[in-house]
Amino acid sequence: MIDAAFAAGQAVFIPYVMAGDPDLETTSSILEALRDAGAALVELGIPYGDPLADGPTIAAAGQRALARGTRIGDVFELVRRARASGSPPIVLFTYLNPVLQYGIERFAADAQRSGAAGVIVPDAALEETAELRAVFARHELDTPLLIAPSTSPERAARIAAASTGFVYVVSRLGVTGANQQRSFSSVRAQVAMLRGVTDKPLAVGFGVSSAAHVREIAAIADGVIVGSALIDAYVSTGAVGAAAAQEVGALARTLVAATGREAAVDIPR
C-alpha cells in the first residue's frame, strides 16, 4: 500500500495527526479532511506518556488524547473506520514500550486487521528492530526507519536497507515541531547522500511547517511530512469536530499544492 503512494514519481504530502486529540470523533473528521485534501499517506500517532521524539505541540496533543481515555484499541478502530471510508494508507506512529506492553504479535495482528499499512517506532535503534520488523512483515506491515542528520553514510545505508515502505529522513537534530524560519541546505546534502545508498522513497520530516518548506523539500525528496503545524491549526482556534477538520483541511490543501500535486487526487488505496 505504501509503495503505491509513491508510484507516480512526484513528491507526496504526508500529514501527521494525533489519534484522540481533542477526541476520537474529531480525529475521524480530520482524517476525512486530509483524504479530501489529497494526502498520499497519513501518519497517525498513538498517544504515549513519554514521547521522546515529539516536540511540545505533539506531546501536548498526546497528553490531551490520553486524558480523554484514548487507548491503542481505540486507534485501531479509528483506522478501520477511516480505511472503510476511503482514507489513504495509514502508518501508525508509536513507541517501543506501548508495543511491548500490548504484545508485538498482538499489536501487529490488530494493526493488520484494522487496515494499517505500516508502523513507525522512532525510539527503536536499528539493532533493536529485527524482531519488530520480522513480526510486522508477517502481518504485511511496512516499517519505515528514521535516519538522523548525524548518521554516517555507512550506517544510513544499513538503516535504509532494513527500512520498508519509505525511509524517514529526519531533517534536524532534536524533536518534532513547527519552525517557520529555517534553512534546508543541510537536508539537501543529506538527501543527496541517501540517494547514493538507497533507491527507496525518501520522506523528510521534523520542523517542516509551511508551504515554502514543502516546496523546497518536494524539489529533492519523495515525500514531505508535516505534523505540528496541522495540530496548531485547530488548537490555536480551539476548534473541535468539523470545525477542526476544516482548519486542518484548509492548511493541508495549501501544503499539497506546494508539492505540485492537486487536492482530491486519486490516491492509491
Q: What's the alpha carbon Rg, rounded to whole Å?
A: 17 Å
Distance between the termini: 7 Å
CATH architecture: Alpha-Beta Barrel
Strand content: 5-15%
Helix content: 40-55%
Write down the CATH class: Alpha Beta
Put simply, the count of helices is: 12
**Helical/strand content category:** alpha/beta
For the largest beta-sheet, the strand count, sense and barrel status come to:
8 strands, parallel
Number of strands: 8
CATH topology: TIM Barrel
**For the largest beta sheet, what order do the strands appear in spatially?**
4-3-2-1-8-7-6-5
> Could you report the average pLDDT, rounded to the nearest whole number?
91
Number of domains: 1
What is the ordering of alpha helices and beta strands? HEHEHHEHHEHEHEHEHEHH
- CATH level 4 superfamily: Aldolase class I
Q: Which regions have little confidence, pLDDT < 50, spanning 5+ residues?
A: 174-178, 264-269
Shape: globular
What does this structure look like?
This protein is α/β, with parallel strands linked by helices and 269 residues long. It has a single domain (11-258), classed as Aldolase class I (TIM Barrel, Alpha-Beta Barrel). The chain has helices spanning 2-5, 24-37, 56-67, 72-84, 96-102, 104-114, 130-138, 153-162, 185-195, 211-218, 228-235, 241-258; strands spanning 12-18, 42-45, 90-93, 118-120, 145-147, 167-170, 202-205, 223-226. An eight-stranded parallel β-sheet has the order 4-3-2-1-8-7-6-5. The model is unreliable at 174-178 and 264-269 (pLDDT under 50).
